[in-house]
Specification:
By secondary structure, the chain is mostly helical. 71% of the residues lie in helices and 0% in strands.
Length: 105
């Protein structure tokens, strides 16, 4: 009799173990509004510079760093890197407007 109770208990435990739910998904990192806006502007500025053939690699690298920080939820790093990306993208566009060579000055 005890053997049957033990078998029933083990079978019940095994069946309940199969019903265990999956572990909860990790919480998604969230950014504050300022970081989200800065990242959006940086993406736009870098895209504009790239379309004009004026994208500096420093702008591209800063945007990449901002996106990596966004994944981690680090708003301060997103803002810092996004501002750098925007500034360098705009500087690249301004540089493109300058003459390639100035003679006689």
């Amino acid at each position: 009799m005890q053997k049957h109770i033990l078998i029933a208990a083990v079978a019940g435990m095994l069946s309940l173990a199969g019903c265990q739910s999956a572990p909860p998904a990790p919480a998604k990192a969230t950014l504050n509004d300022e970081a989200q806006i800065a990242l959006a502007w940086a993406e736009s500025d870098v895209k504009t510079a790239q379309s004009q053939g004026a994208l500096w690699t420093t702008a591209e690298n800063a945007l990449k760093a901002a996106k990596e920080a966004a994944v981690k939820g680090d708003s301060a790093a997103v803002i810092k890197n996004a501002k750098t990306a925007s500034t360098h993208a705009k500087l690249g566009i301004e540089q493109k407007k300058l003459p390639l060579l100035t003679l006689g000055k």
